[in-house]
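Renewal narrative, Specific Aim 1. Our central claim is that a sequence can be written position by position from structural information alone. The example that follows is taken directly from our test logs and has not been curated for this report. It begins with the structure tokens describing the chain, in the order in which they were read.
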């Protein structure tokens, strides 16, 4: 008895969905990496600000020059502004990560739905194969029975 092999009609689409998901995983990983980098920049700026504040306190006790205090104070204000700007960058990165995560979830759901469809079709194929095999065996039994009856 010959049986045709299982062939999923939408295999090319399933493969395309798998490729799209893999591409989205790369995009998501890139967004996560950028977020980590930007958070690290923010942390460095915050650490630098704290260090410079301590340095300013020490120099305040040692120096007595007005232009030094003004320039150092301006520098600290610039650092604070840089930190605020960096916080905005980090928030944008977080939003981007969330968007890419949603897109990845959509791609995964699409792939899973096609895989479920493939599995259902495969189960249907197996049931049809079993039915055909049983029919073939029934016919074989009938032929043998008929031959045995004729030979008696």
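The sequence written for that structure reads:
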């Amino acid at each position: 008895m010959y049986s045709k092999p299982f062939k999923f009609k939408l295999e090319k689409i399933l493969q395309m969905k798998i490729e799209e998901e893999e591409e989205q995983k790369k995009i998501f990983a890139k967004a996560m990496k950028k977020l980590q980098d930007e958070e690290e920049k923010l942390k460095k700026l915050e650490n630098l600000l704290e260090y410079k504040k301590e340095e300013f306190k020490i120099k305040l006790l040692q120096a007595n020059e007005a232009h030094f205090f003004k320039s150092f104070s301006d520098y600290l204000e610039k650092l604070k502004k840089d930190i605020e700007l960096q916080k905005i960058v980090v928030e944008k990165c977080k939003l981007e990560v969330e968007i890419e995560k949603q897109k990845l979830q959509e791609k995964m759901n699409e792939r899973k739905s096609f895989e479920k469809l493939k599995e259902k079709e495969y189960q249907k194929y197996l049931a049809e194969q079993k039915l055909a095999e049983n029919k073939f065996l029934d016919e074989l039994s009938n032929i043998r029975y008929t031959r045995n009856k004729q030979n008696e």
